[in-house]
Write a structure and sequence with these properties.
The protein is built from 2 helices and 14 strands, in the order E-E-H-E-E-E-E-E-E-E-E-H-E-E-E-E. The protein is mainly β. Strands 9-5-6-7-11-3-2-13 form an 8-stranded antiparallel beta sheet, with no helix packed on it. Strands 1-14-12 form a 3-stranded antiparallel beta sheet, with no helix packed on it. It has a 3-stranded antiparallel beta sheet with strand order 4-10-8, with no helix packed on it. A hairpin with a 5-residue loop joins strand 5 and strand 6. The longest helix is centred in the C-terminal third of the chain and has 6 residues. The protein starts with 11 loop residues before the first strand and ends with a strand.
C-alpha cells in the first residue's frame, strides 16, 4: 500500500516538499512548539540546499520580516507554514533572501526564498525545516510522509476534509 492509497476515491489537498532533503517526523524536531504539534501537524526536512519552493498553488499569507519563514494558503484553505531552521528568527534576516511578498499568488514550485544553509549552520543554528499545516483541526485526516530523501515538489502531505 502506497503512502496516499488511503485517499483513493476521496478528494484531498496534496502538499509537496518545499525543499530537497531528508524527510523526518515532526516529533523529531528539537523545538517542542513543532515537535508537540502545537502549531499543527506536519513534517520536517533536513535540507540538502537552501532553495525553498511553494509546496502548492496558493497565496502568500505571511512573509516574516526576517525571511526565515513564509506562509502559503491554498485555494481550498490549507494554511501552510514553512519555518527554515530552529530559532533562526534570532539571525534578524542574515542568511535569508525572500523572493515573494505577502498577498502574492504562487504556483507549486515557485521559488519563495533562499537561505544560506551553510551560513546558518556555521552560526550555530539547526537548519531542520518544519512545514506545518496551521489549521490542522479543519481536516479529518492529515497523512504525512515520515522518512526518506525527498525532492522539492514531491508529495509529502495530504489533507482530507
Amino acid at each position: 500500500m502506497g503512502l496516499f492509497d488511503f485517499m483513493k476515491g476521496k478528494k484531498g489537498t496534496v502538499i509537496a516538499s518545499p525543499l530537497k532533503g531528508e524527510c523526518i517526523p515532526i516529533k523529531e524536531v528539537k523545538d517542542p512548539t513543532f515537535a508537540e504539534e502545537i502549531l499543527g501537524k506536519g513534517i520536517a526536512i533536513v535540507p540538502a540546499d537552501g532553495k525553498v519552493y511553494a509546496p502548492a498553488d496558493g497565496t502568500v499569507s505571511t512573509v516574516f520580516p526576517t525571511g526565515h519563514a513564509v506562509g502559503v494558503t491554498t485555494p481550498d484553505g490549507v494554511e501552510i507554514l514553512i519555518h527554515v531552521g530552529m530559532d533562526t528568527v534570532e539571525l534578524k534576516g542574515q542568511f535569508f533572501h525572500t523572493i515573494v511578498e505577502t498577498d502574492q499568488k504562487v504556483k507549486k514550485g515557485d521559488l519563495l526564498l533562499e537561505a544560506d544553509m551553510e551560513g546558518i549552520s556555521n552560526a550555530g543554528y539547526d537548519t531542520v525545516t518544519p512545514m506545518i499545516i496551521c489549521n490542522s483541526t479543519d481536516f479529518s485526516e492529515i497523512k504525512c510522509k515520515m522518512d526518506g530523501v525527498v525532492e522539492a515538489g514531491e508529495e509529502v502531505i495530504t489533507c482530507m476534509k
